[in-house]
Amino acid sequence: MDIIYLHRIASKDGQYVHVEELTNAILEQGHDIRFIAPQFTDESEFGSDGGFVSKLKEKLPQFVYEILELSYSLLIALKLVVAILQKRPDFIYERYNLYQPAGVIVAKLFGLPLLLEVNAPLFDERRKYSGIAIPWLAKAIENFTWRQATKVLPVTQVLANIVMAHGVSKGRIEVVHNGINEHVYDKFNLVPKTDENPEIVVGFVGFLNPWHRLDLAVEAMGELKHLNIRLLCVGEGNDNIRETLLAQSHELGIPDRVEFTGLKARDEVFDYVKQFDIALQPAVTPYASPLKLFEYLAAGSVIVAPDSSNILEIVDEKTSILFENENLDSFKEKLKYAITHFNELFELRENARRLVLDEGFTWQGNARRVVDMGKKCMESRGKETNA
User: Fold this and answer.
1) Which of 72, 108, 269, 283 is the most buried (most CB within 10 A)?
2) Are both 14 and 133 inside the same structural domain?
3) First and final CA of the chain: distance in angstroms?
4) What pLDDT digit, counting tens, does each position of 307-353 carry?
């Protein structure tokens, strides 16, 4: 299959991981991809914020920046037209972004299927966290883009429900959760601890935010300091959260049991996740499909996660320790339970690892689904044309 992959990601972070993993899996299966995307992404180090684009956004009035976003869509349209004329693709795969209607417009113009991956309701998200200067236009374009795509691929059913509420029919929606690379999965193995007093590593991967409430994890460890426990946090944070947690560990008398690695490259992250006996997913955006959750599953960690609807799409009580969503006391108590009963939870860990393959939560599986959907959309369009 010949595929055009369209995205507007300028930062090298979790978003870029999704793009890289999915497209590598598609290429691995023998298909061709032509990218229409910012060129400087590939040259950036992991964790970079987009450089020029981020600085531009900070300096320009919001109204002007949004007009530039929409203007950029004209450039995307021209690039798409050139790419299609040079080598007509079988379909277009686009990662949705606000103020970008070019993909669906050009796809309609050339009679091509367009599969639209949606990771967030960006109009609502941006309006809540950073504001939108031209809300009526942004919302109109979001609705137009979602409704005109051949298929819409939200990453959770929670997000699918949001998409449906905005006028997209159920038949044009396919939920495609995130996953893990099969080759990385094969590098993990699950071995029971046989020591009399084994070290239990409680781990967290991601950007450290205050609402993750890792202070509760440190507090729980302080209450169980007679046990051999270590907290390992992989990633950076803001609001001096690292310093705050380290100060807390000193107050509780466990300064040598809290470790922060700082930002690490993707390959290095997996080496740390391998060490996690217990893995924390303490808070989550209600419509997100957290990348870390699939890594935790593959590692066979005892996962402590909220019982929010999007998390329950992936795991249940047979594969994770679930706490009451947004209940801080519940989070802390479930973590303490996981620590004190760790040796009894080996079956749960086995179930977690098995779940990845049983449910197809891999990038290779997602790639096959995407290509199959593209083929079916092509066949449907061919029948409509012949009719």
Assistant:
1) 269
2) yes
3) 24
4) 999 999 999 999 999 999 999 999 999 999 999 999 999 999 999 99
